[in-house]
Write a structure and sequence with these properties.
This protein is an all-alpha fold and 68 residues long. It has three helices and no strands. Helix 2 runs antiparallel to helix 3. The chain is rod-shaped and about 70 Å long.
Length: 68
């Protein structure tokens, strides 16, 4: 017999968990931010972005670029 006081709360928590899980999966797959996608950047692309944002100086950019 599963008609105790806590059974309703457990079922509610279970269904909320299922809904949150489904929304999370749908959101990740529709936005292209899936952790299994192959959209990795190369080191040079990351370096160029950091230089464009002003995170590194021209000298640091040239030095790192030579090392890569």
């Amino acid at each position: 017999m599963m008609h105790g006081y806590g059974f309703g709360a457990h079922m509610l928590i279970f269904w909320i968990f299922i809904i949150v899980l489904m929304v999370s999966i749908f959101r990740d797959s529709s936005s292209g931010k899936n952790k299994y996608s192959k959209q990795s950047e190369t080191a040079i692309e990351i370096l160029k972005k950091r230089y464009a944002k002003g995170e590194i100086t021209s000298e640091e950019y040239q030095e790192i670029k030579q090392k890569l």
